[in-house]
Amino acid sequence: MLRDRIERVEERIRAAASRAGRRRDEITLIAVTKTWAAEAITGAYALGLRDFGENYVQEFETKPPALALPDARFHLIGHLQSNKSNRAAELFDVVQTVDSARLGRRLNDAPRRRSGALEVLIEVRLSAESAKSGAEPEQVQALATALAGFPNLRLKGLMTMPPWSDDPETSRPFFRRLHDLAASLGLPELSMGMSHDFEVAIEEGATMVRVGTALFGSREP
After folding, report:
1. Among 61, 121, 201, 211, which residue's beta carbon has the most beta carbons within 10 A?
2. pTM for this structure?
C-alpha cells in the first residue's frame, strides 16, 4: 500500500538525516509521478505529500485533477526544451533543470498562471555520460549570475543526476561535488538522490530528494 511505502521512505529519510546530524524538516520529499495517472498524485496528496516531480510538460498537462490541489507544489525535473518554456512556467512552481541563460530568459518572459516568481534550480552535468544534460560545472557561476538578474525567477539551488549504479556509494562523489559547488555560490537548495541513493544524498547535504519507485513501485508502461 502507498501508505506503507511512504512510511518506509520516511524511515529511511529520518535515519539518513540522523546519521548526518540533520533534522528531518531540512529535507523535502518530492514524489516523482512521471508516467503515473493523476490519481497517483491525488492519492499521495491525501496521505500528506505536497511536492511532486514530473519529467515532461506534455504529460503533466494531461493531469488536470492534480492541478486543483491546494498547497501542492509541482517540480519539473526533466529536461526542458525551450519551445515548452511558456507552458512550463504556467504549470510548475519549480523548474529544476535550467541549463542556460537562454532558457532562463524564456522562463522569465513567459506568462505565469501561478502567482509570484518562478523558482528555478540549475541542472549541473557532473557525469561524462553523453545522455546527461545540464550546465558544465565551470559554467555555473556565470549562469547563476545571469539568472539572478531575471526579476521573474528566483534561483534557489542546484540539481544533478549521477551515473546510474546499483551501488549507491558510487553516487557519493557526485553529490559531494554538487554540495561544494552550491556552497561556493551561497545557494541553499540541493536536489539530488533518487529511490536507490537518496540516503547517501542526504548524508551529503541534499535538501530535496526525488523518489518515485520506492513510493509507487515500478513505472507504468
Report:
1. 201
2. 0.95
Give yes or no for a contact between 100 and 143, defined as CB atoms under 8 angstroms apart: yes
φ/ψ (deg, to 5) at 46: -60, -25
Cell of 194: 533518487
For 81-110, the pLDDT digits (tens) are 999 999 999 999 999 999 999 999 999 999
CA 100 – CA 214 distance, rounded (Å): 31
C-beta of residue 38 within 8 angstroms of C-beta of residue 64:
yes
Q: Contacts from 101-105 at CB under 8 Å and sequence distance 24+?
A: 101/142, 101/143, 101/146, 101/147, 104/143, 104/146, 104/147, 104/150, 104/153, 105/150
> Which triple of cell numbers denotes residue 202?
542526504
Per domain, the residue ranges of the chain are: 2-214
- Record: fold of 2-214: TIM Barrel (3.20.20)
CA atoms within 13 A on the CB side of 155: 26
